[in-house]
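Checklist before submission:
- one chain only
- standard amino acids only
- sequence pasted in full

Submission:
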Amino acid sequence: MATEIRQATIRHIDELMPLVRAYHDFEGVTQDDETRRKTISTLLLGPELGPVWLIYDAEHLAGYIAICLGYSIEFGGRDGFIDEFFLLENFRGKGIGGKVLGLVLERLKGDDVKALHLEVGKANRRAKALYTAAGFDLRDQYHLMSREL
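Returned file contents:
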């Protein structure tokens, strides 16, 4: 079965919204649908902010991955952050996540992105194994810190 990623545009908002809601439910993210839709729309309408790809496996919509772009002095240029990566339950554990990461890394490298970052739940062993297998390293001398404004 072929796994592929297709860049989402604002035309895909209605396909994307249930996936984002399911991911937020899975991760315990509290956000109302109006805010969620506005935020996703902003990303889809601003390609300079980063791509959102719909994930298909054998032509079935399987999930999505959203990358937000930035710039890093340390890494020498543009960098990205996997903001959200979600596969529907029936597509997990089949190697699709690893294939998607490979496709994403290839596309970002082609767009001259120098580094890709992510955060993963400490207890999410399955996701940590996926990211480790894809070549991501734990930078345990650092802590991701956030503050809402």
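Reviewer check: The chain has a mean pLDDT of 94.
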